[in-house]
Records
---
Amino acid sequence: MKARKQTFVIALAMILTLTIAPLTVFGQDKADKSLRVEGNSIEGVWKNQITVTDCQSNTVLATFPGLLNYHHGGTMSETGGTNPALRSPGYGIWTRTGGQTYKGKFTFFTFNPDGTLNGSQKVNQNIVISLDGNSLTDHATAEIFDTGGNRLFTVCATANGTRF
């Protein structure tokens, strides 16, 4: 009798697990899809127009296009629309901070015209996705380092992007 009761309890536990687990998974999938529909997902490819400024005077130093790819799981890759012989692609990470807001950071190497390493840049982003999920605004700072890792200066940047 005792063995029969144990078998019944185990069978009941398995039935409940098999019944509840799919509901939890399907419910989570539905929630994830609603976040994407409402524009709360940064994942995907974005085409940006970047404006780099002097942080103190707000003087425009450069304007160029860029592509950012925010990968599922919190990594990202970036390519600036500048001379590819003078810089590498960028690689970094991102995290959701709430609602439609995100933080990201990425780094890339810079080169002299003769191809020798010049240094690197580290970009820190504060990103807001529009409610419809099709555009973003990014306010960033970029720290410029020499080959020894010494910070030379910092510039500011803004970007307006659209989902590709």
---
Amino acid sequence: MSRFKIVHKTGFRYGVNVQASYNEARMLPSRDDGQIIFSSKMEIKPHPASHEYIDYFGTRVVMFEVLEPHEELEIVSTSVVELRDPPAREAEMTWNELATAIDRSLELKDAVSVSKRTAIPADLARFAKKVAAQGNPEQTALAICQHIHASMKYQFGVTGVNSNAAEAWAKKIGVCQDFTHLAVGALRSVGIPARYVSGYLHPQIEPRIGQAVMGESHAWLEWFAGEWIPNDPTNNVQATNRHIVVARGRDYDDVPPLRGVYAGAANSELFVSVEITKEA
């Protein structure tokens, strides 16, 4: 097991006063079998009216509104999370068993529906179909993720937050959001349920206890083959005890850390910083 402290600071600078803002934040780690939440809190300035709820995908969401003039909105999420080692895997599923499971589950049916973000080009769909004919669902999913990792170059600044899988594949360049959209879309194209995961990844393979490092939000995926199996196609690894889950959804549109609107004529500038410390 590994224990981490995460301090995620974000918000908007407006330049001049805006009259009010209405927002929702997904910045608190998920409570599930793989994560123990020792503490988590969110501090917002100016102080808002707020409430927390769990969305359709099991993500903790804080909705809040600031109804006073302000030039800057700041949100700081501070959490301490312990990651458990995953349990031993069960027997691998066949394609027929997977199809039966999907028929019986609304959650899995949602996870095989292709969205605009995850629609993939014909050549990638052909590759996915080819490997699906040669192995079971888990073998297929792993081969698809490895192929995307090998085919894409990680480079920041070429794609944007609004990019989709097809645009990233055409350039063969992108960031973790693009790698994940491509993998999710390719898996869904052959009938494997897949969901987009966002959270944090400690950047060091062997983190030093007590050393605070600058990190960032990260994206990976989970596919279903009898159980939800994590994979990080950007780094070509199964999700490890350095991946901290915050949100799950169909694609990025379901999981942005901060989203909102404001009343006022000013432009806004987003700022973000993430600090991660391994505590045990």
---
Amino acid sequence: MTIPNLISIIRLAMVPFIVWTLLDGQTVLAFILFVVVGISDGVDGFIARRFNQQSELGAYLDPLADKTLLVTMFVALGYLEAIPLWLVVIVLTRDVLILAGVMVAFVLGDPIEIKPLFVSKANTAVQIVLVALALSMPAFNLELGVIHLVVVWTCAILTVASAFAYFVAWTRHVAG
């Protein structure tokens, strides 16, 4: 077990605690835990590259931890109405469609290698910013109306663009 893999496992284990603190009204603690988990994502990647501790397990654990955190936070923040429910639906639908596409390609005997596209990386970055904003507003009594709205719509646009880009890549892959 490498150190980066252990960090990824800890990140996965932290997700329920972050959600619990958020739903329990401990918004400052939820924000702090979210930031710590976010920083640990960068740390495990740095350690993996710098000390040649990249592994096949880590290639699955790291994105699994990231996706678990973001999806769970979107659902929880949607439930609390800190993120619009329509955006939660768009984000979840994109992720389900990507997973379904990978599974269909696998079943067809033509597994697809998942490579993050630039638009997907930008989308993830904006999702992280949106979660951080949505957590920080109640935690620190911030009123970020227009900024929050701009980030919400940017997230929506990038999520749809990312879904479309993956659909195009998937269609090309399946078509051969």
---
Amino acid sequence: MSTEAHAAEGATGYIIHHLTSLSVGEGFWTLNLDTLFFSAVLGVLFIWFFKTAADKATAGVPGLVQSFAEMLIEFVDNQVKDSFHGHSKVIAPLALTIFCWVFLWNFMDLFPVDILPLIGSLMGIEYLRVVPSTDLNATFAMSISVFCLIIFYSIKIKGGWGFAKELTLQPFGPWLLPFNLLLKLVEEFAKPISLALRLFGNLYAGELIFILIALLPWYIQPVLSFPWAIFHILIITLQAFIFMVLTVVYLSMAHEDH
């Protein structure tokens, strides 16, 4: 629906409409179809871009696509070398995937708030939430995936007994085992929660500001939306960078076996 159509319902109805996902199912089994769709499309776009760059790679003067792909790879590789102190062939590709995928999620926030929902309404889709990182389910899915990798590598590198000792004997020794375990569990569970909520909170706030700007008179919107979009480019890049770096740091901690 257009801004004018929702204005008749009031600002509250307009905001709720834009922040409501296209969902099926109930309760725990609810699926946000728009989040899944845009996440899949952006994932395919990421794979296609790097495959195209790899297929057209040359030892001579690189083209624009190859130069940009090499710049991204070098940037991520430097961050991994600075933050990761173990040995793994998985971490650098994982970091590149997380950075690019989360950035593409966030980049959807720069589309005018009414464009894609309007196209969806013409196709008979009542609700369409186009920014996956404004969906708490998506950010938690990503952070829980990282958390599972942290547990996997902690057990793989330290061994089951070594990981158990890390949970129960640090930092105060065996005499305070229950307290050690409580502190360690809080520390471990804080990692995925902080990753998910940080990304969700920043992008949700940014999307809400764009929606509020869209409620203003048409002659005021460009004055506010353009500067906010420029500033928001920094936010979406920074949030993707933070998610990637923290993932690498957490996995580096999981690889420490001393």
